[in-house]
Amino acid sequence: MDDNDDYDELDTAALDVLRELGPLSTEDWAIAMSDRGFGRRRDMYELVDTVDSVDLAFLPDMRNIAVATLLEGRVLTHRLNHREVASDIIESMDDLSPITTLLQFAEDPAGLRTKYRGIGDDEIFTIRGIDDPQWPPSEALVLPQGTLSDYEPGELVSLVVAGGEVRIRSVDGPLEHVDVSAAVREIVPDDESVDRDAVVYQLMYDQPDLFTKPGPPLSELFADAGFDQSDDSVARTGFDFDAEAATTRTNVVSNNFGVDAAEARALVLFGDIMRDIRGEATHDAQQRAEAAVSGGADELAPLARSEVAALALRRQLDGDGAAEALLNVADALLTVGPRRVTAAAHWFRATALDRLGDALTAEKALEKGLDADSHFEPAVLSLAEYASTRGDAVRGLSLLGRIDPAAGADLREMLEPYVPRDRPDLGRNDRCWCGSGRKYKVCHLGKNVLSLEERAQWLYQKAGGYAATENSADLIIGLAEIRTAHLGGGDDALSKAFDDPFVSDVVLFEGGGFAEFVASRGPLLPADELMLAQQWLLVERSVHEIESVRPGEGMSLRDIRTGDRHDVTERSASRQLSAGQFICSRVVPVGEGFQIFGGIEPVDPSQRTELIEILDADPVDAEDLVSFLSARLAPRRIETRDGDPMVVCEAVFELGAVGGLRRKLSRKYGAAEGNRWHWTVESSILGTLTLDGTHLTLEAMSERRIDTLIDDLMTLHPDADQMSQRRLSADEAMAERSGEAAEPVEVTPELAALLDKQVRAYEQKWLSESIPALEGWTPRDAAADPTRRDDLIRLLGSFPEEERVGAMSVRRLRDMLGL
User: Fold this and answer.
1) Does residue 62 sit within a domain?
2) Are residues 17 and 121 in the same domain?
3) Domain ends where: 373, 402, 437?
4) Is 777 helix (H, G, I), strand (E, B) or coil?
5) Could you give the CA distance from residue 230 to residue 242 in angstroms, rounded to a whole number?
6) Counting beta carbons within 10 angstroms of the beta carbon of residue 648, is it exposed (0 to 12), middle (13 to 18) or buried (19 or more)?
7) pLDDT at site 545
8) What's 188's DSSP letter?
9) Do 768 and 740 share a structural domain?
10) What whole-number distance in Å separates Cα of residue 245 and Cα of residue 262?
11) Which of 111, 214, 201, 90 is nearest to 160 (CA)?
12) Does residue 380 belong to any structural domain of this protein?
């Protein structure tokens, strides 16, 4: 049973406990689960706090309640209007939502289903002839077409819960008189709103006979009792729902982002203005933005604090039209906003212009922002990044010196290696070393004179920093998760995947980040770097054969797709790679030479054909590429003959009275060898059973096999009690055998013999198989053909030379092939 199955069983058990004892607070629910032996209180609290079921709801005091039983036999009504009759769609929120909650995750057998305007369900409303994008405003109950054909507007229809299913029925005869005024006043305080469904559930819980016959709709009952509804809440007539909603939103923002109430109100208002004008025509958007900013100038003043301004943008830059809306708001702040937010407004404007592809005008806006506040951190960071893009490390570091060192640590670390180094042998008034005839102080003193080749890494880092923005966040996360899956999962693996140079390079090139960088920031780049960047955009990732290596200096590569040869400068990887290997990389020009940026991925010879097909696609699929080249990182998988993962399994049972078990085991598995029985199929041993006194030990090489042995034993001897069980992957078992584990265990001779037998059989089979790395030739045929022999030798050379249990032996393969 996997973890999801375990969780589902606990989920079901938790709901059973709630049905038995509820309503319960979350804490009491967890205690009840713990008292019944399901786990520790802390673990049970986490469990019940995340139960997700249509059967779970809350009462006004936030106690949990299972509503399916509570709703059984209940009837709620709704008065139809003309639009509902025509479309067979009911606006269900005000009257029917306490029951329609049972339909949220699946369609009812009668064909009823709930849909919501604005979250992907709009198509059904169009199909039913509804052209008003504002109706229904929230939840709708969609009925099979023709359900309401016999109804007239103004008539009542009812929902009934019967046998756990929701049914729609007509309302005939007089309505039951229902007066809930006093009961609702006890539930809903004078100065608060309460969730409407929670109020109804409390009424049902307190009065078991309530809503068991058709009565007036809930909306009419609440109105008669002196209560108003808004969205999904109920409050006394005259209650200010808008003010409460604003307060709630402010509190949520304050708690989530750690800002005070005034700052939270500024963030909420800023977001409201952005949403209000997004998508509007430019002139209208500007007018509306100015009116909103003018009316809320005092509330927007906290945007002057750099942390608040940064939060404002982080929450609002996603989606179409965001940059245009931000530009309108920024201009409105500069025109009619408080003076203290001038620096923030210029930074907002620069950010919008940058997103719209006008980096030069954005740079001027940043300069104006620093004129207003020379230490406004977001503008300082942005302008320092622009200085880096221009190749001016001195100015970038000077700007970063104005703010907290921690804020620009990554950018500072990138810039420091590119600070110009002065010539100590020249005085300020000496003739410059470059031969210009001018004095050193006016020519090259303090100016960067690094070659293009020396600046290539800087150019790559600039693009990487640009791509690491929100524009590429989804792609970075997606590719990192693909890489992580092959690394074995876990937070540590995900962290490694985010820092992986190959993932970053795929985001830049196959993901389009580098092209966006050149289009957006190209006007800021030094001319030679812009030309180099444009050259890099023309270079495709490819598969290269290493023809020679100069350890610590570089390599000579042949592109097997094009035949091009490149002499590459590479100091690190050249110490680890050797001639004859294949790699996947992007080889780019840098001045007079070539370099590799973005990591080097080893390629098994058998992968070449399939990898080239991926690289030949137009466009290359980034996810396919990362997945294919990450497969080598996955843990080795050793399989049994029937395709199951090889797992060393052992289970020990106490038999009590052995009785006639020996005879039963011999009938099932054949005669024993001493006290040991072998489960064999076609002469292959699939498991063993060893009797030692009253203890029986079961051993097998897969989980499916050990489970079969256990099931067989319990059938033959139901009184057997399991004393211990252990299951180790093949890698874990071999690690223990080689002494890598803290507590080595003995691997039986039978296991070693079984592995050896299986591997030797596979080797014989492999010799006659069609191998992609040999262009479909078999190893035997390639060994006999002089034109293919070198490919075969290279393929075998890529296999591990170390003799390992459970792995093919390169020595044996060479002997069998006459190599």
Assistant:
1) no
2) no
3) 373
4) coil
5) 9
6) buried
7) 92
8) S
9) no
10) 16
11) 214
12) no
Residue 414 lies in a domain: no
The number of CA neighbours under 13 Å toward the Cβ of 8 is 5
Give the contacts of 12 (CB within 8 A, at least 6 positions apart): none
DSSP 702-758: SHHHHHHHHHHHHHH-TT-EEEEEEEEEHHHHHHHHTT-SSS--PPPHHHHHHHHHH
Report d(CA 512, CA 489) in Å as an integer: 27
Looking at the structure of the chain, the number of domains it has is: 7
pLDDT given for residue 731 in this prediction: 65
Contacts of 67 (CB under 8 A, 6+ apart): 55, 56, 57, 98, 101, 102, 201
Distance CA 586, CA 564 (A): 13
pTM of full prediction above 0.70: no
Residue 592 resides in a domain? yes
- 144-188 pLDDT, tens digit each: 889 898 899 999 999 999 888 888 888 888 888 888 889 999 999
28 and 127 in a single domain? The answer is no
**Beta strand 233-236 with 194-195: parallel, antiparallel or unpaired?**
antiparallel
Question: In Å, how far from its chain's centre is CA 247?
Answer: 32
Number of H helices, E strands in the chain: 37, 23
Sort strands 565-569 and 582-585 into parallel, antiparallel or unpaired: unpaired
- 194/181 same-domain check: yes
> In this structure, is the dihedral angle defined by the CA atoms of residues 192, 197, 200 and 201, taken in order, positive or negative?
negative
Give which of 603, 605, 600 is closest to 632, Cα–Cα: 603
Name the DSSP letter for residue 631: G
Q: Which residues contact residue 154 at a Cβ distance below 8 angstroms, ignoring those fewer than 6 apart?
A: 79, 80, 81
**Best CA proximity match to 638, nearest among 756, 737, 749, 739:** 756
Pair of tokens at residue 742: 């803290």
Task: Out of 692, 716, 747, pick the residue that ends a domain.
Answer: 747
State yes or no: cis peptide before 619, omega within 30 of 0: yes
**Cα radius of gyration (the chain):** 36
**Tokens 């209940």 label which residue?**
74
Question: Angle, nearest 10°, between helix axes 26-35 and 41-48?
Answer: 130
List all residues 6 or more positions away from 208 whose beta carbon is below 8 Å from its beta carbon: none
Say how far apart CA 819 and CA 280 lie, in whole Å: 75
Number of residues assigned to the chain: 819
Query: Is residue 651 located within the same domain as residue 571?
Result: no
Instruction: Report the C-alpha gap between 674 and 435 in whole angstroms.
Output: 96
Task: Locate 398 and state its tokens.
Answer: 């000077």
Weakest mean pLDDT among 213-217, 380-384, 484-488, 692-696: 484-488
Q: Which two tokens stand for residue 175?
A: 């309505």
The Cα 45–Cα 14 span in angstroms is: 11
* pLDDT exceeds cutoff 50 at 741: no
Residue 442 in 3-state DSSP? helix
Using one digit for the tens of pLDDT, what is the confidence trace for 219-270? 999 999 999 988 889 999 988 888 888 888 889 888 888 899 999 999 999 9
Assess whether 682 and 787 both reside in one domain.
no
Query: 3-state SS string over 785-807?
Result: CHHHHHHHHHHHHCCCCCCCCCC
Which helix H or strand E contains 185, and what residues bound it? helix 181-187
CA distance 141 to 129: 15
Q: Are 157 and 75 in contact (CB under 8 A)?
A: no
Same domain? For 659 and 803 the reply is no
Q: Rounded to an integer, what distance in angstroms lies between the CA atom of residue 100 and that of residue 106?
A: 11
Longest distance between any two alpha carbons in the chain, whole Å: 109
Number of Cβ atoms within 10 Å of the Cβ of 327: 23
Q: Which domain holds residue 440?
A: 421-449
Residues 602 and 667 in one domain: no
